[in-house]
UniProtKB/TrEMBL annotation:
The chain crosses the membrane at residues 6-24, 36-56, 62-83. It is a multi-pass membrane protein. This is MtN3 and saliva related transmembrane protein. GO terms for molecular function: sugar transmembrane transporter activity. It comes from Parapedobacter pyrenivorans. One of its GO terms (cellular component) is membrane. Its main location: membrane.
């Protein structure tokens, strides 16, 4: 594994995990009033484009990390609809 691949995996891990604390909080509290639906949608769009770019470049770290981020953010979006008042 090259140095660049290790850096890519590390960067992807940190950025993909960035929304996990928010998701955990929403699951625990069932409260989504403080979430910005616009931010979540923009983020989903951006990381989805990164996944597509990763496929175009055949870059597994980009694909995997951003696909995980899409999953986390889509889950957050679903909970936004489920728990909104």
């Amino acid at each position: 594994m090259t140095y660049e691949t290790i850096i890519g995996i590390a960067a992807g891990t940190f950025t993909s995990a960035a929304m996990l604390p928010q998701l955990i909080k929403v699951i625990k509290t069932k409260e989504t009033a403080d979430l910005s639906i616009t931010m979540i949608c923009v983020l989903i769009t951006g990381v989805s484009l990164w996944v597509y770019y990763g496929f175009l470049q055949n870059e597994i770290p980009i694909i995997l990390s951003n696909a995980f981020s899409v999953l986390v953010n889509l889950t957050l979006l679903i909970f936004w609809f489920v728990f909104r008042k």
